[in-house]
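Go through this chain.

——
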Amino acid sequence: MISAEVVPFLILAIGVDNMFLVARAERKVPSYVTEIDMRLALALQEIGPSIFVAAFCEALAFFIGMQTNIPALQSFCLVAGLGVLTDVFFQVFFFLPALYFDKLRFDDGRYDMLCCIKADNPKPARADAIRKLYNTYFVPFVFRQSTKALTVGITLALVVIGGMSCHQLKRGLNQNVSLVFGSDIYDYFETLYIYGEAGPPGYVVFNNVNYTMQENLDQMELIDAQLSALDNTIQSPIYSWVGPFKNYVNYGTW
């Protein structure tokens, strides 16, 4: 559920900037290069290695995250890593052809939304107003000595405040961050978090256990008893399904 809700926004944030970079690189190609396919080739030659290295490192980081023992994190890293690689594939084999046909449309003087209609008096390309404003006002402001000193001071202050506040961070994670808002389980954990004042509940999960062996069930009951004795760190009650399961097997009816 976390992968389905978070990964699309992650892939969008990673992929949309690459499209702007490719389009910007194509505009920086010298004007004497008139062939559209050659302009795109030169643009990809300029920006392609950066896109490939960035995508490779991002996918590698997610695939390394799959080595953890948390199932939810493994699923998230797998979907995110494959999504990054698929994103790069779409950028090369879908976005570049779309950009190619868009350049053909522009050179032919056709409208953008109604590409089947040709304009009588096609307008020239608009000037890059945002870049002009940045170069005129924002860049000189950023490179001032006073701005640099202010930036360093704010950074150091945030680092100091963050370091001093680390001891006030609460351990654990509220389960509601991975639940659907308004569901019964969400309301249950929300009520437990507001009125329980016992902190986040903890779970002990066992993998690859043969429940037909009495020795394993006895060990799990022993662990339950030992956890119940930790009054200083764990607040009762502690719920275990092992006891009811044994009673069901011994006295239940099918």
Observations:
- The chain has four domains: 2-125, 126-169, 172-201, 203-254.
- The chain is about 65% helix and 0% strand.
